[in-house]
Amino acid sequence: MSFLAGAAGVAGIITGIVLMRLGFLQQDEGADDPNPFARPWWYKVALGAAIGLAGATILGNAVTQP
Predict the structure, then answer these.
(1) DSSP-derived secondary structure for 31-49
(2) Rounded to a whole number, what is the largest CA-CA distance in the chain?
(3) What burial class does residue 31 get, using C-beta atoms within 10 Å of its C-beta: 0-12 exposed, 13-18 middle, 19+ buried?
């Protein structure tokens, strides 16, 4: 179970980084019209980890169900 939690954490961090690179969580600091969805980096990492944990939980439940 701890392996699943560790994998979910890694997948979540990767998901957060990918979302940042794709611009979904872009932070506009110097823009005249600041992005209302702009968040600090720790928020992006936490959101990515939550998405990864939820996905890993759903996937784990789907795989382990008889």
Answers:
(1) -SS--TT---HHHHHHHHH
(2) 55
(3) exposed
Query: What residue type is 14 in one-letter code?
Result: I
Q: Which of 7, 17, 3 is nearest to 45 (CA)?
A: 17
Q: Which of 47, 43, 51 is nearest to 8 (CA)?
A: 51
3-class secondary structure, 8: helix
Mind listing the pLDDT tens digit for each residue in 16-51? 777 767 665 555 555 555 665 667 777 777 888 888
Q: What is the pLDDT of residue 30?
A: 55
Cα separation, 53 vs 27, whole angstroms:
24
User: What pTM value is reported for the model?
Assistant: 0.43
